[in-house]
C-alpha cells in the first residue's frame, strides 16, 4: 500500500485556496513563499516574522530531501537502489546501496508501519502504483496477469537495513511517496521553530503542519474537504495548533472506466484500489510523518481496524468520513476539535459501535 505523491496543479491550488479561506487574511504581518518540490506545490506562511532568509533555508532543505528520496530524480538514493535492482543480471539476487541517514530513517519508519498494518502500508508497493498510472497520461486498468506479476515483487519484509546500507531483492523497487512529504513537513517545522518562529502554516500539497496559533491564541481553522462535492467544499473544520493535518480520500486522484472509479489507494491483496465504506480519512497528529502513513493505512484498513490502529499511535487521532455520510472519530479530543458545517452528514460520537 502506498499513496502516489504527484498531484495535479489544479488539485493542489484548490487545497491552497481552501487553506487561505480557512486561515483568513487578518491583520497579522506575514511573509510567505510558494514553490515546487517533492512533486507538489509548497506554500509556507509565517506570522509575525520578517526574516525571509529562513525561507531560503526551508526550501534548500526541501530540495535536499527531494534529491535524496525522489524515485525520478537522477542520482537520488531511491533511484540508485531501484535502478540496481532492475538490472536483469541481478534478478533473484539481493542488491544493496549505501544511503544517506535521513533516507534510512524514513525507510525504517515505513517498515515499522508495514509491520503495524500487516503490509497495508508497504514502501515496496510503488511498482503496482506505476502499473496503473493513475494521474498520468497512461492511466488504465492493467491485466490481471500484469497485476499478479507485479504483486509478486511487493513485500516490505524483504527490505533490510544495516547501518547505512539498504538491501532489497532484485526486481523490487522502493517508493517513499506515502511518507516522505510528512518527513519533510516535520523537518521544515523543526527549522522554523529553531529560528524562533512562533506561528506558521506549512502546506506541502495538502499535507498541513501548523506551528503555534494563528494570532492572539486563536487556533488555526483547517477545512475538511467534502469528499462528495467539488474541490474547496468543506463539510467541517478543525481548530488546531502545533499539529499536522493530513487527509486521504478516493476523490483525490482517480480515473473512471466503464462507470467504475479507480482511485490511488491500493489493496495489498488484490493490487486493485481499496473498496470499502470509507470516503476520506483525516489524521491529526504531532508527527507529520506518522500522519502521512496513517492517512493511507487507515483508509486501507477500514473504519474499525483503522481507528484501532490510530489509538495505538501516541499523540494521533483521526476523523473518518464514510460513503453513507457518517463521520467517525478516534476519540473525544478529536471530536471536540471538529465543527460540522454540512448537516447532510451525521456525527457518530466516539465509543458508539461502528455499523
Structure description:
33% of the residues lie in helices and 26% in strands. It is an alpha+beta fold. It has a nine-stranded mixed sheet, sandwiched between helices. Helix 2 (53-69) runs antiparallel to helix 7, helix 4 (101-116) packs parallel to helix 8 and helix 8 (288-301) runs antiparallel to helix 9 (303-311). The longest helix is centred in the N-terminal third of the chain and has 17 residues, at 53-69.
Low-confidence stretches: 1-26
Helix content: 25-40%
Count of individual beta strands: 17
The SSE string, one letter per element, is HEEHHEHHHEEHEEEEEEEEHHEEHEE
Overall structural class, as computed from helix and strand content, comes to alpha+beta
Large-scale geometry:
globular
Largest beta-sheet details: 9 strands, mixed
User: Cα distance, first to last residue?
Assistant: 25 Å
Annotation field: number of helices: 10
Strand order of the largest sheet: 1-2-6-7-10-13-14-15-17
Estimated share of beta-strand residues: 25-35%
Overall pLDDT level: 88
Radius of gyration over alpha carbons? Answer: 20 Å
